[in-house]
Amino acid sequence: MSTETRLGFIGLSAGAGGYGSGGSWASKSHLPYLQSDRNAGKYKVTALQNSSKKSAETAASKFGFTDVACYDNAQDIANSDVDVVAVSVNVPSHYDAVMPALKAGKDIFVEWPLARNLADAEEMTQLAREKGVRTLVGLQARQNSSVVAVKKLLDSGDLGEVLGTTMHGYGLIFGAVNPKSFAYGFPRENGANLLTIPCGHAIDAMCYVLGEMDYVSATLANRRPKFQVADGEGKIIGEDTKTAHDYVAFTGTLQKSGGVVSVIYEGGQNPSGGPGFFWQINGTKGAVVLEGAVGHLQMYQPKVKFAKAGEEAKDLDVKWVGDDFGYAVGEAWNAFAGKGDGHVTTFEDALLRHKMIEAIYKSNESGKREIPPAFNALLWHGNTITISAEEYIIPGHHPLAHLAPILLLLALDMRNYNHPKTYIFIEGPVLQTVAPLPLHTVFFVLVLVPKLHSNQAEPSLFTLISFQTVRTTDAPVLKREQLLSQAVALLAIPFHG
Length: 497
Description:
Elements: E1 5-10, H1 25-34, E2 43-49, H2 53-62, E3 69-71, H3 74-78, E4 84-87, H4 94-103, E5 107-111, H5 118-131, E6 135-138, H6 145-156, E7 162-170, E8 177-179, H7 198-210, E9 213-221, E10 226-230, E11 236-241, E12 247-254, E13 260-266, E14 277-283, E15 286-292, E16 303-308, E17 314-315, H8 325-336, H9 347-366, E18 379-381, E19 384-386, H10 403-413, E20 437-438, H11 442-453, E21 477-478, H12 480-491
Parallel strand pairs: 1-2, 1-4, 2-3, 4-5, 5-6, 7-13, 8-10
Antiparallel strand pairs: 7-14, 9-12, 10-11, 12-13, 14-15, 15-16, 16-17, 18-19, 20-21
């Protein structure tokens, strides 16, 4: 009996993709992984859904899939005998493709952006929570080998405290000429634009490496509201207009280090012929630079140089995969299968990024600094840590489980602070989250539980403030039962579940 996960794919078509360059995105990224040895024993495509049944059948024949069911609508593939539904269609179509699968209780993959706007992303994420399904979002810049290497460098401490970071990218889209096949991205309200796609992927990688920002102060502009349109062969066929921005600029500071952030993304290509992507991170012990030809970090791998303080920059040891679009995507799929060293980026992660983008839009409109609701999840004031609240209550789970999101935030952040006595004040309802819990929260569970269950008037380590839940799968996991048994055994405390 096969142990492969049955995968139903929406949008794996044999036709031209959104940029008119040799096939759909799914056929250039997911397909190479799914048909490679890296996928051995993990996933099997058993269903396809495209705009028509004939289109799905054409794709099945072209890509060599046998014994696959073909559909022309999202409801039918959601009701089919698949374990996971993968959605790789134009952003404005995400909601209609995703919701039937979520309602059917299917685990799901969705390309980034998760949705065309924050409201849709929140609704999809909430339904995924209620259904208890596993989610994966195509923010695969986190799997880019160069990004992985830089994150390891920072985590090692070799860069020291982060003083600041500068990123400048060119997004190819929204230059002087744009492909007709990308017309769905011209209206800002469709959510497929310079800010959400190339810049969105890049700033997600930035926050994955450096942590979230305290605030954003943004300026956006639509400098080319009218432009030429080309067909799939690059021939100019007319003109069109857009409301989406082609210049993105914002600044702010990092929560963890207080480092200054400066990000600029422009439409088209670098007119000087220089690099299309540049990202520098300066620390107290040195600097690291990522530089590449194209500002799509989710697709193209930049080269990396590291300069220790007072020394010349040298190439960082990075696994080089070049422009293999299937590599980072495959790392995400492997991680979703519990294999490899990749990172599972969930709907929760995507929602956080959508809130960041919404804050950028709001800051541009208001002319003021904006602090997104999810950004102030972890703010220090003297020796008190404030963790903001968002409802995420799942009844029926073990009382210890509510600590996981708090502990995770603390585990990720305490490395950067040296408060000998930090107080957290408990306020509001007890929140609970689902298992499995990240392994690196165990230490904080073991430390905090006796303090929270003690009768001391003033706990010596922590006092708890209202908080927000944040889920992650960026670590090995430990089932709830294992966690509790270890906590009880190691602490030798009475527990009444």
